[in-house]
Amino acid sequence: MHTDTIRNIAIIAHVDHGKTTLVDKLLRQSGSFRDNEVITERLMDSSDLERERGITIRSKNGSFRYQDHTINIIDTPGHADFGGEVERVLQMADGALLLVDAQEGPMPQTYFVLKKALARHLPVVLVINKIDKPAARAHWVVDQVFDLFVTLGASNRILDFHVVYASARDGHASLDPDNFGTDMRPLFDAILKYIPPPKGLPDAPLQLQVASIDHSSFLGRLGIGKITAGRLVPNMPVVLATTDGKHEAARITKIYRYERDRKVETAAAEAGDVVAIAGLESVMVGDTYTDPENPCPLPPLPVDPPTVSMNFLPNNSPFAGQEGTFSTSIHLAERLQREALCDVALHVEELPEGNGFKISGRGELHISIKVETMRREGFEFQVSCPHVITKEENGELLEPYEEVTIDVPEIYLGTVIEKMGGRKGQMLEMIRNADMVRLRYKIPTRGLFGFKGEFMSDTKGMGVLNYIFFGYGPHVGEMRNRRNGVLISMQDCTTVAFALFNLQDRGRLFMGPGERIYRGQIIGEHCRDNDLVVNPAKGKKLTNMRAAGSDENIILTPPTLMSLDTCIAYINDDELVEVTPKSVRLRKLDFKP
After folding, report:
1. Angle, to 10 degrees, between the axis of helix 19-29 and the axis of helix 185-194?
2. Quick one: which of 456, 455, 439, 448 has its CA closest to 363?
3. Position 320 in a domain
4. Which of 276, 363, 374, 465 gives a 20 to 30 Å CA spacing to 256?
5. How far is 73 from 87, CA to CA, in rounded Å?
6. pLDDT at 526
7. DSSP 3-state assignment of 577?
8. What is the rounded average pLDDT of the residues 188-193?
9. Same domain for 215 and 190
10. 3-state SS class at 370
11. Which CATH number do you get for residue 507?
12. Which CATH number do you get for residue 461?
């Protein structure tokens, strides 16, 4: 049968455990590239933002041939904030490669992605990656993963998982942790042997549920999914069954298969194939392409609800419209609605006042990535500080909690415990391993806002912090993550070195001399807990009298540079971040000196 030579696999793992690097090596060693072809690192991370941050944000499809088999691979994000991507693309897979770091073992996101894979009864091949680490402990990791399978209620069939030991960076795999292989052949063979072919029904009415959306500048929106039943050919009439129960007639214009990391047009596709199809501009994630004579839509994809929200507002600062291409509320509405069509974990609502939009997502990073993407596209707007989405049950107010796993050198243990306690964290576990300590906490999601940068500073960059959604728990009341007030400009002006020199004793500054600022803009952090209105344009008083001694040299401390993520985590409820393609500014929401 056609499906016997197909394998559809998802690569799932915790962040930084090597998914994208592994996909690179599989594509290279499968013979998909010429010997003299130049290949970029982390081929599947196609966007600039993914390459800069070193994380996968959107799931990617690819394919290669091995021993007359077609292996379709789905590279998924590892960060908890992009878990919605993992949930929806797993329905295209018939099995999964679970990557686990040979030193760290199972981490919070490992639990999440494995839970989703087991919910779909997917067979799993365990890949212990980074086996070449000096501190690798492969047998301990296998035992920990087995315990995780048992905890998640895996069946006896799935508990008998196959294990491959690999180093994706060096491109070798083996079945023995003590003997490194020479290539990835043991992993290729494991995929063919332990991942089953798709259970397609080629003679049944067409069924293809859209799991992801791509865009072509020539064809518009492309729906990506696995053909569950039936067959596809160009110009074929179909019905698009939407998630809200509507049926819309359409015609397939183009069909694409995947080769390596790119799409290639094909004349036909059958049950079991993962394809991208063009023909309907209104297609959304979760919609089903089905037979017009016998429509059989599939149930909508279940996705966990959002836990964090932020307000997106049109820019109304004195510098509005000077640096961006798209700055009106209409531009903002169109772009956000378009993003919500592609990202099922993102919710967009218009604010009751009609002056902006409430964007809800999986976490602070999830939404800040959207802000950075829009900024690079030329949008100019403002965002509020993040808020958690609370709910009420039996008269009790509940808020979201995260499970945090921290690996930190023992010398910084006291500082980390003190900071987590101040953010209402509850310690669940502490494990010592040589000079490192692993801490496990349950903490309100609010307690993590702005904590990552502070944590890295406290541990001198040697600590590792990971978290995943734990569930809802009792609301802990007011929480202040920022203890200090801010320095606020009292007028529209250009900053002067003399004024900044005299303000240095009042706190740390966010800008240097010669920068244009406006009334109400935040130019620094006050050393006390109250806000302070200052004049950053105040010059030295000049007279016609000669100075008795030499003038004091003006030596400015370099300003603290605030990234977009840092700004979003820094602001309070009465403050906004102004985002433009050229600048990121902090301001008071309603400044009245």
Report:
1. 100
2. 448
3. no
4. 374
5. 15
6. 92
7. strand
8. 89
9. no
10. helix
11. 2.40.50.250
12. 3.30.70.240
Closest CA to 168 of 128, 197, 198: 128
Secondary structure of residue 199 in the 3-state scheme? coil
| Angle value at C-alpha 60, between 237 and 107, nearest 5 degrees | 135
Residue 82 in domain: yes
Q: Tokens for 284?
A: 């959304």
Same domain, 413 and 516: no
| Residues paired with residue 151 on neighbouring β-strands, in sequence order | none
- Of the residues 290, 306, 338, which one is the last residue of a structural domain? 290
CATH number of the domain to which 265 belongs: 2.40.30.10
Domain that holds residue 229: 207-290
**Which amino acid, 471?**
G
DSSP state of 558: P
Q: pLDDT per residue over 516-561, tens digit each? A: 999 999 999 998 888 899 998 887 777 666 655 455 677 888 888 8
- What is each CA distance from 128 to 8, 58, 142, 185, 583, in whole angstroms? 20, 24, 8, 15, 43
321 within a domain of the structure (yes/no): no
Structure tokens of 295?
């429509």
Predicted confidence at residue 593, as pLDDT, reads 60
Torsion over CA: 83, 84, 89, 95 (sign): positive
Backbone phi and psi for residue 477, each to the nearest 5 degrees, phi listed first: 85, -165
* Residue 496 and residue 523 in contact, taking contact as beta carbons nearer than 8 Å: no
Structure tokens at 219: 């064809």
User: Which pLDDT belongs to residue 487?
Assistant: 92
- CA–CA distance, 540 with 552 (Å, rounded to integer): 11
Check which CATH number belongs to the domain holding 12 and give it.
3.40.50.300
Note whether 265 and 135 are same-domain residues: no
Looking at the chain, the whole-number percentage of residues with pLDDT higher than 70 is 94
| 522 membership: H or E segment, kind and range | strand 521-526
Q: Give the end of a domain, one of 474, 503, 522.
A: 474
Do 62 and 167 lie in one domain? The reply is yes
Quick one: average pLDDT of 39-51?
A: 60
What's the pTM value of the predicted model, to 2 decimals?
Answer: 0.79
CB 128 within 8 A of CB 167: no
Structure tokens at 551: 């003038």
Contact predicate 128/163, CB 8 Å = yes
Residue 334 forms part of a structural domain: no
Whole-angstrom CA distances from 240 to 91, 233, 275, 337 are: 18, 16, 16, 20
Residue type, 563: S
Average pLDDT of span 462-471 = 84
Task: Give residue 169's pLDDT.
Answer: 84
Question: Is 558 found in the same domain as 444?
Answer: no
